Amino acid sequence: MVNENQARRLVVLGTGGTIAGRATQPNDNVGYVAGQVAVSDLVAMVPALATCALDIEQVAQINSKDMVLGVWQALVRRVASHLDRREVAGIVITHGTDTIEETAFLLQTLLKPSKPVVLTCAMRPATALVPDGPQNLSDAVAVALHPQACGVVVVCAGRIHGALDVSKVHPYRTDPFDSGDTGALGCVEEGQLRMFRPWPPGVSQGTHDDAGLQRLLGASSLPRVELVFSHAGVDGELVRALLEQSSSKAGPLRGIVVAGTGNGTVHEDLLVALKEAQVRGVDVVVASRCAQGRVVPHAGQPLPDSAGLSPVKARLALALQLLEA
Ligand code: SIN
Fold first, then answer.
1. Domain co-membership, 27 together with 168
2. pLDDT average, residue stretch 231-254
3. Whole-prediction pTM value?
4. Domain that holds residue 302
5. Active site residue 18
């Protein structure tokens, strides 16, 4: 029998980021080193967490710009294993802001958890005069303990963003995320949640895409999918160089995501090279390089579109799809 207190147990997993960053001066919010402070020390900075039943684990200690498959595998493994524990109500993950949207997308795609998995972060290091990490961590815990919460979300600056919608849109503001046309799912005000939209759909543990999960956990690398931009003056030479590259540490080229202009249009010279890539068996997907909105599907589209995913999420989605092939 699980008692009320045990059922409200949370797991906090640390992966690094600015929230765990350290600068030599308290007024330095940019010249710090990310991923320095242990997640247990971050938790200790939030007095309100002292009364929570928490299991704390340091999964990684990196700047999230350096995210690699091995860290994703370790994180996915720990999240899946803790979700299986009946007494765990939810999971909080401290993460760098720079690739948090990719990690959130990966976790939601593979696990679609019916329990909340809440990623949080900071834009100022832990040593800052006024750090934003402790409040974000406290808000993330409030979300993870909410009885209706489910799915993978990102909590930052008092807002709750869905994993599929969120992207980082500002390099400095303490509220650097946006959820585009859909907007945030809700907000956290003084520890209380106010929801604007329904929670992302979750599936109970054991009914998620276990085959996809096992493929990711067993992979020695992700299929190589490159991201190219269409812009004024671009040509197809970068794509042709990729096609000509006979060997690479990352393996053979399997896919290309092109961040197209506007409604997913692509410069005519680049399009010729992308068509050559398709002929050579490379999967090509177009996303919009616009910060908001999606490619509106229309007849005669020269390339398949990313179904609304941003370029970085479309790259990950295609890599996961190719892992199945
Ligand atoms: C990182 O992404 O690890 C560094 C930047 C940040 O967390 O804001």
1. yes
2. 90
3. 0.96
4. 222-324
5. yes
